[in-house]
Q: What sequence folds into this?
């Protein structure tokens, strides 16, 4: 039996929703097949009031072992570093987080808010939000860069807005079944098994990317979403087109651009109207050019790609 | 639109440009916002106002500018259909033409 506790800081519950939608394995499988004892979870926990506080105190004192501490949402420090804006079970959530992380064997941050601060940490960040061990790209966060859980690992970051249901449960199972040692983490502490390839890997619009056929409106069934609609698929580490959403589709398959939600800088844009789903250009040329290509080279490359494109690249092909 | 109708429309446009239709080739939209402004002007036109479309978007029947830009390299040009796929334009075009909505 592995004791798991799931708490939520500054968050929208999106990752809880995602977790409850997991299929391989499902949230129920965690309990029935993998021997995970869910001590408490914001949507599933049975304990209330004093009972919950007693349990939390038993965990922080070491009386009850805490194998896996899962945190969703940001660590809220406002106002003025006190954390009083996010109180839970009688004290600031940030204090519970600090104490629980001291006793937990493994700490798993789920979703962008817990990993890198996500949307709540966008400037001016009135809630003084940080992720558990990062704030955007900068290491540190609530626990500090040198934090290691009792098992010797830093926070395992499973980003996403929300994280895909099965990334969540598969990582929890790996940790609970003693395979945490097999997890290798990248520079942002993301499990490499999920976050080495790009959203573009497996995208059904790859040929449109290569042949430079652009989708000009959401939901169009042909064309790549990079040239007009700001798709970040080529530079975002995620398996969204390998581990499909609802087991059958992905954003790009449905004609929506990837917004790069698994990267620490998400949401990337200043969020002014017209900046999010739009590829920014200067004099008709994309602002972010592929590395090492100049404008003339890019124009030549495009002409060659266009000339080589097969006729079917221009038809409305059905993408699931 | 049938292949015949497309050909006919292409010829009509070529004739209009050949006869020296003056179109607004400058200023070239430098930023995304300026680009969007031209699209907005196009959306305000009557659906069948072909001349209006050509004028506002700055059509010419030859490559343009120091980089000799042309439809051929433009994002919206469909090689096999010889067609401009920008929804606000959606007209047949020749690979050597150009308009100021050129984008790569
Ligand atoms: S739609 Fe996005 S992910 Fe797919 S090929 Fe285009 S840029 Fe890549
Ligand atoms: S497609 Fe992109 S934005 Fe969507 S979930 Fe995957 S990484 Fe996030
Ligand atoms: S947008 Fe202009 S340059 Fe591009 S294909 Fe259409 S007509 Fe040609």
A:
């Amino acid at each position: 039996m592995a004791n798991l506790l799931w708490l939520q800081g500054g968050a929208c519950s999106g990752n809880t929703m995602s977790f409850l939608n997991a299929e391989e394995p499902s949230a129920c499988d965690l309990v029935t097949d993998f021997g995970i004892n869910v001590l408490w979870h914001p949507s599933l926990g049975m304990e209330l009031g004093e009972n919950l506080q007693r349990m939390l105190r038993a965990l922080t004192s070491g009386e009850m072992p805490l194998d896996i501490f899962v945190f969703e949402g940001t660590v809220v420090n406002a106002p003025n570093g006190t954390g009083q804006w996010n109180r839970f079970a009688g004290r600031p959530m940030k204090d519970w987080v600090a104490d629980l992380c001291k006793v937990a064997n493994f700490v798993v941050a789920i979703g962008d808010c817990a990993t890198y601060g996500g949307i709540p940490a966008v400037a001016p960040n009135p809630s003084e939000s940080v992720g558990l061990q990062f704030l955007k790209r900068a290491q540190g966060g609530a626990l500090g860069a040198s934090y290691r859980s009792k098992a010797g690992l830093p926070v395992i970051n499973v980003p996403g807005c929300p994280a895909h249901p099965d990334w969540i449960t598969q990582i929890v199972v790996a940790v609970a079944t003693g395979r945490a040692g097999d997890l290798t983490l990248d520079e942002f502490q993301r499990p490499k098994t999920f976050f080495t390839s790009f959203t573009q890997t497996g995208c059904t619009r790859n040929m449109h990317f290569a042949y430079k056929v652009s989708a000009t409106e959401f939901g169009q069934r042909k064309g790549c979403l990079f040239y007009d609609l700001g798709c970040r698929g080529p530079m975002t580490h995620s398996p969204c087109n390998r581990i499909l959403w609802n087991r059958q589709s992905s954003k790009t398959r449905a004609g929506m651009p990837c917004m790069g939600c698994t990267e620490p800088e998400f949401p990337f844009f200043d969020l002014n109207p017209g900046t999010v789903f739009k590829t920014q250009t200067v004099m008709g040329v994309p602002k972010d050019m592929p590395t090492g290509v100049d404008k003339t080279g890019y124009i030549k490359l495009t002409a060659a790609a266009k000339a080589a494109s097969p006729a079917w690249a221009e038809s409305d092909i059905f993408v699931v | 639109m049938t292949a015949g109708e497309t050909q006919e429309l292409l010829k009509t446009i070529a004739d209009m440009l050949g006869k020296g239709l003056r179109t607004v080739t400058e200023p070239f939209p430098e930023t995304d916002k300026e680009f969007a402004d031209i699209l907005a002007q196009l959306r305000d036109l009557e659906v069948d106002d072909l001349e209006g479309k050509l004028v506002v978007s700055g059509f010419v029947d030859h490559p343009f500018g120091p980089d000799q830009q042309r439809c051929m390299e433009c994002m919206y040009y469909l090689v096999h259909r010889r067609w401009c796929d920008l929804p606000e334009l959606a007209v047949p075009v020749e690979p050597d033409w150009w308009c100021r909505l050129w984008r790569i």
User: Anything to note?
Assistant: The longest strand of chain A covers residues 2-8. The pocket of iron/sulfur cluster (ligand 2) is lined by residues A 160, 199, 236, 238, 240, 250-251, 258-262 (CB under 6 Å).
